[in-house]
């Protein structure tokens, strides 16, 4: 790690001395940051070797209701928000940016778990619980609270208590509440390395907390060590088994194959019908028959079809932001394939999202500026500015609202002031300069747009359209078909983001994403052709809206998923719909960009094939 830091400093110093071009500095910064990201790859075996009797620290992290997952994006609280046994001095482990964004707050504990030393009934502390502290524990037990800890970077969970129904109880609802006061740890080792650990809250060691009375509780713990043949390099694989059970894997592969078959059949049918009609239209052009020419509508709008749309700055900003998000998604897939992103790698995904978005902002500025400058010589700065706030603006507002909610609940999802300052510094000194740099490069390297046919001064009047040919209906068709092909895998993805399933097959997710892109492009081309055939030349915005309409169906599925889940509470409600709205908005911009790009290529090709009159 020290060598990597020195290498980074030396590279930056050398770049400054030699006055490297801005593009080289950007690439250098990207690869250095990517190198630092590999800190999140599975830990090196040399860092996790212990001798018998070595004290391996256990860190406590969070507590939260079982029905409101997911860690870091849901209702979770710091471990010591409940009156557990705590050290005299709390020392928080230094957290990365991603860990803070994920709500992780690892803190020291009184547990002394030494390598290869068994302990039975070890006293953690003797604690007198006051009436209000008993009420806190009872509320946690009522809501099925769990706790999360980390031991040698391995996560472990356990429940805080249990509820039993007793008809003879003096309690009004006949329920008895019990707090677990003993935790048993079962650890597996191979040689001098820790492979696996579990926490088991013993139901035979409980204390009644039904009444708000002062009680004395003796918290204890045990640990047992057993040898295993599992290698250190494979110790994280056990966290993937839950989502790779035979029946689950069979269902997922069936849904995947079913989606592929549906997509292939629909694409084949669409291609056959589409090519047949287009070939007939081109034959009519080449025949030169005036009566037949009148039957073909898209030929008569050749002077209007390449007229740039209204609100051009906003349109180019949408293209720039969509292109940036597409590149960011591609980088995340690469990191997943490289093993940088894997289950329970604390904060790796959040860190990757922040870093990749900041570094790819140069792409947003370049795309918005270069496309805008092809049509208008002045005003490109406005499009670059809009591309910088088109997604980050709504995201900032949503995160601010959710952070206020988290602060009011005292949840771990609340961002510390220091983290907010770091994010603002990244945006100010990385995002904005790269965005402006990309815009400047796009403007300097601009080229004039050369349409196959000249654009007329006055636009042709669009004939009245039936209701099923208007934008809302076309958006419905353009979004329904891609969504129907990915809905099963989308459900698995939501179960991973907002449940306890673990997504371990990035290859399937990548293939589904490629299928979604291809189908969006094909449908956009087909619907654009139908629109032009009706002599409707305003296809620019409509192709973008049609492409992104799949995100609307995704958000509707979010509502269905929430209704079927057991999530509850205002905080979970706000976080669930707030973050899903941001995700669906990003998907809208990405697929909208794909829809327009595919339609633009198609329109240019068909008008190139027509004889100019």
Helix/strand/pairing category: alpha+beta
Q: What's the Cα radius of gyration? A: 29 Å
Strand proportion, as a percent range, falls in 5-15%
Biggest sheet details = 5 strands, antiparallel
> Helical residue percent?
40-55%
Low-confidence runs of at least 5 consecutive residues: 1-46, 242-247, 290-295
- What order do the helices and strands follow? HHEEHEEHEEEEEEEEHHHHHHHHHHHHH
Q: What is the residue-mean pLDDT, rounded to a whole number?
A: 81
Name the shape in a single word: elongated
Q: How would you describe this protein?
A:
This protein is of the alpha+beta class and 613 residues long. The protein has helices spanning 2-17, 22-37, 97-101, 131-142, 246-287, 290-293, 312-338, 348-359, 361-373, 380-389, 392-409, 417-444, 471-497, 506-533, 540-548, 550-564, 570-608, and strands at 58-65, 77-78, 107-108, 119-129, 145-151, 154-159, 161-165, 175-180, 182-190, 193-201, 206-208, 215-227. Strand 5 (145-151) and strand 6 (154-159) form a beta hairpin.
In short:
It is built from 17 helices and twelve strands.
């Amino acid at each position: 790690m020290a060598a990597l830091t020195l290498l980074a400093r030396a590279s930056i110093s050398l770049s400054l001395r030699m006055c490297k071009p801005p593009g080289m500095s950007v690439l250098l910064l990207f690869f250095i940051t990517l190198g630092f990201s590999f800190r999140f790859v599975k830990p090196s075996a040399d860092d996790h070797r212990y001798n018998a009797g070595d004290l391996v620290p256990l860190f406590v992290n969070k507590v939260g209701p079982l029905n409101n997952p997911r860690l870091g994006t849901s209702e979770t609280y710091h471990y010591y928000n409940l009156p557990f046994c705590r050290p005299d001095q709390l020392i928080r482990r230094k957290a990365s940016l991603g860990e803070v964004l994920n709500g992780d707050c690892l803190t020291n504990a009184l547990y002394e778990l030494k390598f290869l030393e068994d302990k039975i009934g070890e006293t953690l502390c003797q604690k007198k619980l006051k009436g209000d502290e008993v009420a806190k524990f009872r509320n946690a037990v009522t809501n099925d609270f769990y706790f999360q800890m980390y031991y040698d970077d391995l996560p472990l969970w356990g429940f805080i208590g249990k509820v039993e129904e007793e008809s003879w109880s003096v309690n009004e609802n006949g329920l008895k509440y019990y707090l677990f006061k003993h935790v048993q740890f079962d650890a597996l080792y191979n040689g001098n390395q820790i492979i696996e650990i579990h926490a088991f809250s013993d139901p035979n060691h409980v204390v009644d907390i039904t009444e708000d009375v002062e009680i004395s509780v003796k918290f204890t713990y045990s640990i047992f060590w057993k040898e295993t043949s599992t290698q250190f390099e494979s110790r994280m694989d056990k966290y993937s088994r839950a989502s790779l059970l035979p029946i689950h894997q069979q269902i997922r592969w069936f849904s995947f194959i079913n989606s592929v078959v549906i997509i292939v059949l629909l694409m084949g049918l669409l291609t056959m019908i589409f090519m047949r009609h287009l070939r007939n239209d081109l034959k009519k052009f080449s025949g030169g028959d005036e009566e037949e020419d009148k039957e073909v509508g898209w030929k008569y709008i050749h002077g209007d079809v390449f007229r740039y749309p209204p609100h051009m700055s906003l349109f180019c900003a949408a293209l720039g932001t969509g292109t940036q998000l597409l590149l960011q998604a591609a980088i995340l897939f690469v990191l997943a394939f490289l093993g940088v992103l894997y289950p329970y790698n604390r904060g790796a995904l959040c860190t990757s999202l922040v870093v990749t978005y900041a570094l790819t902002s140069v792409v947003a500025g370049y795309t918005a500026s270069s496309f805008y400058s092809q049509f208008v010589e002045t005003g490109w700065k406005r499009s670059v500015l809009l591309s910088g706030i088109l997604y980050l603006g709504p995201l900032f507002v949503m995160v601010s609202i959710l952070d206020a909610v988290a602060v009011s609940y005292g949840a771990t999802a609340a961002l510390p002031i220091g983290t907010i300052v770091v994010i603002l510094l990244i945006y100010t000194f990385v995002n904005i300069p790269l965005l402006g740099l990309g815009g400047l490069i796009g403007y300097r390297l601009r080229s004039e747009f050369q349409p196959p046919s000249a654009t007329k001064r006055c636009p042709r009047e669009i004939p009245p359209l039936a209701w099923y040919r208007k934008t809302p209906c076309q958006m419905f068709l353009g979004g329904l078909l891609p969504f129907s092909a990915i809905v099963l895998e989308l459900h698995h993805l939501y179960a991973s983001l907002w449940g306890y399933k673990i997504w371990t097959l990035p290859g399937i997710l990548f293939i589904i994403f490629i299928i979604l892109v291809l189908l969006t492009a094909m449908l956009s081309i087909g619907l654009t052709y139908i629109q032009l055939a009706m002599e409707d030349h305003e296809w620019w915005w409509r192709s973008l809206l049609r492409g992104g309409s799949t995100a609307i169906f995704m958000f509707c599925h979010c509502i269905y998923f929430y209704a079927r889940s057991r999530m509850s509470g205002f905080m979970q409600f706000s976080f669930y719909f707030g973050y899903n709205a941001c995700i669906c908005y990003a998907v809208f911009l990405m697929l909208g960009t794909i829809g327009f790009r595919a339609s633009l290529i198609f329109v240019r090709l068909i008008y190139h094939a027509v004889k100019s009159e």
